[in-house]
TrEMBL record:
Keywords: ATP-binding, Kinase, Nucleotide biosynthesis, Nucleotide-binding, Transferase. SUPFAM superfamilies: P-loop containing nucleoside triphosphate hydrolases. This is Thymidylate kinase. It is an enzyme of class 2 (transferase). Its EC number is 2.7.4.9. Belongs to the thymidylate kinase family. It comes from Desulfobacter hydrogenophilus. Pfam families: Thymidylate_kin. GO terms for cellular component: cytoplasm.
């Protein structure tokens, strides 16, 4: 299929509370306004594996971190290849997909507990199926993110602790450096206003879509 007939694949990354969801919504609205077919999604998914992962993240189902990492990779493959709602098919048939989290989330969160290279290899199939046209990392001070989470949630998830959030941010940056010749990543200052972040996002997306 000709590249001109394909849609794009844009991924937002960031630590919890960085404001990704807001920026996903704003970008999708803007893409739709200029006539680009667009679909928004997120990980973990709402499928059976994704629902199981959410139970684990809540702490209600204790499990080994390697199990979580493996399940995320499996959920991601289904997210890509589902015959009805798969990202790969949508992109191939002209829809631009905007996703809240993808495999860089696994690299950043799971490499706290195991070697990052192991996590990258577990997700190798997914990277081979579809790489993002661009990954947008909304970079926000972990202290600010934690305050946002505490103000909006009754219960925090297992990764939503300040020491973990600081480590996850460092892991993100390490993963971007490690894969800088294989992935297109833009780091965006998420401490700015919502409007200015959206402008920075749009400027980056216009380079690839």
């Amino acid at each position: 299929m000709e590249k001109a007939n394909k849609g794009g694949f844009v991924v937002f990354e960031g630590i919890d509370g960085a404001g990704k969801t807001t920026q996903v919504e704003l970008l999708c609205k803007r893409l739709a306004l200029v006539g680009i077919p667009v679909f928004s999604t997120c990980e973990p998914t709402d499928g059976p594996v994704g629902r199981l992962i959410r139970r684990m993240l809540s702490g209600s189902l204790p499990v080994d971190q390697r199990t979580i990492a493996s399940l995320f990779a499996a959920d991601r493959t289904e997210h890509l290849m589902n015959p009805e709602t798969g990202i790969r098919q949508m992109v191939d048939t002209g829809t631009t997909v905007v996703c809240d989290r993808y495999y860089f989330s696994s690299y950043a969160y799971h490499s706290q507990y195991m070697d990052m290279e192991w996590v990258i290899q577990v997700n190798r199939l997914n990277a081979d199926i579809l790489k993002p046209d661009i990954t947008l990392f909304i970079d926000v001070d972990p202290q600010i993110c934690l305050k946002r989470l505490q103000a909006t949630r009754k219960h925090l998830e297992i990764y939503e602790k300040i020491d973990i959030m600081k480590q996850v941010r460092a892991n993100y940056l390490a993963a971007f450096h490690r894969l800088e010749h294989q992935e297109r990543v833009a780091v965006i200052d998420g401490n700015d206003s919502v409007e200015n972040i959206a402008k920075a996002v749009w400027a980056q997306v216009c380079l690839v879509i």
